[in-house]
Write a structure and sequence with these properties.
Strand order of the largest sheet: 3-2-1-4-5-10-11
Oligomer: single chain
CATH architecture of the largest domain: 3-Layer(aba) Sandwich
Number of helices: 11
Number of domains: 2
CATH class of the largest domain: Alpha Beta
Radius of gyration: 21 Å
Largest sheet: 7 strands, mixed
Order of helices and strands: EHEHEHEHEHEHEHEHEHEEHH
Helix content: 40-55%
Bound molecules: 6-O-phosphono-beta-D-fructofuranose
Distance between the termini: 57 Å
Structural class: alpha/beta
């Protein structure tokens, strides 16, 4: 393995820069050159790449975002786009490719793997934490902490005004972010896309909470549960209480990565280079029960990571 490429793809997650830095520096220590492809898969299609040296990645470990930029490439959804990317990898003499991203990016990587002999390794980075094969993705802890900081502040005003707040966090299809955030802020109710809930059930639980003497409540809802604005109106009508909606939004994707997200970035990069130097591709690296591991890219793409239902039950017990 003489030259590898690195690409960040899909929604950015804080710690991607730390991962780029680690990949470049570990590769350098093994006499492997690194090129950074810009703007996700689009960079492979247009062969937009630049050499990365240990010095060119100085001072980025603490930065959110990605110095390589990212995108959700529509060209890469098409066979021609994937073939072009594969041709460019061959032309640019890229022996290995590290893909830093989430589920969607890994599905793209799997498609690409059938068109190229370049060895591909996925490094999970996503605030959604929904990659099968790793207990945690780079950026998840940072996103949770951003949401927790905001909700702690919202709790103050909720208590002062004796109001109910719905706080919407990201998670278009999965509730990992909402669940971890919810339990760590002591939310009265956590709503995730994986569990169907009726509005009546929410009202029943809020009334129960009120009967126990609680004068305010925080509902943490994943964006994927549906229309939170409508839900706020419905609760207001049925409870006769003041309800406010607050959306944490894109701030969860940015900001300086937490120590945990940075550490994960370094450990994942190390394992990715370990695999590539052994000429092993089509895998993703991950963390399982505290240990850095790897698994087949295809297995990761074809399986759905389960939400920890015990954690959800525990959150309900803690909210009493
Ligand atoms: O990065 C994942 C995610 O944050 C989802 O939770 C969210 O729904 C989505 O990205 C939105 O991202 P974009 O607007 O960039 O498509």
């Amino acid at each position: 393995m003489r030259t590898i490429g690195v690409v960040t793809s899909g929604g950015d997650a804080s710690g991607m820069n730390a991962a780029i830095r680690a990949i470049v520096r570990i590769a350098h220590s093994k006499n492997i050159g690194v090129y950074g492809f810009e703007r996700g898969w689009d960079g492979l299609i247009t062969s937009s790449l630049r050499p990365l040296s240990p010095r060119s990645v100085s001072g980025i470990i603490q930065l959110g975002g990605t110095i390589l930029y990212t995108s959700r490439s529509s060209q890469f959804m098409k066979k021609e786009g994937i073939r072009k990317a594969a041709q460019n990898l061959a032309q640019d003499n890229i022996d290995g490719l590290v893909v830093i991203g989430g589920n969607g990016s890994f599905k793209g990587a799997l498609e690409l793997s059938s068109e190229t002999s370049t060895k591909i390794v996925g490094v999970p980075a996503s605030i959604d934490n929904d990659v099968f094969g790793t207990d945690e993705t780079i950026g998840f802890d940072t996103a949770v902490n951003t949401a927790v900081d905001e909700i702690d502040k919202i709790r103050d005003t909720a208590i002062s005004h004796e109001r109910i707040f719905i706080v919407e966090v990201m998670g278009r299809t999965r509730g990992f972010l909402a669940l971890t955030t919810g339990i760590t802020v002591g939310a009265e109710i956590i709503l995730v896309p994986e569990v169907r809930f009726g509005k009546e059930e929410i009202i029943r639980r809020l009334k129960e909470s009120e009967a126990k003497g609680k004068k305010s409540a925080i509902i943490v809802a994943a964006e994927g549960i549906g229309d939170t604005r409508e839900l706020a109106r419905e609760i207001e009508r049925k409870m006769g209480a003041e309800v406010r909606l607050s959306i944490v939004g894109y701030a969860q994707r940015g900001g300086s990565p937490t120590a945990r997200s940075r550490l994960l970035a370094n450990l994942f990069a190390d394992e990715a280079l370990e695999l590539l130097t052994k000429d092993r591709g089509n895998r993703i690296v991950g963390l399982e029960k505290g240990k850095v591991t790897s698994m087949e890219l295809e297995t990761s793409c074809n399986k759905e990571k389960p939400l920890d239902m015990h954690l959800l039950k525990l959150a309900n017990v803690l909210a009493t």
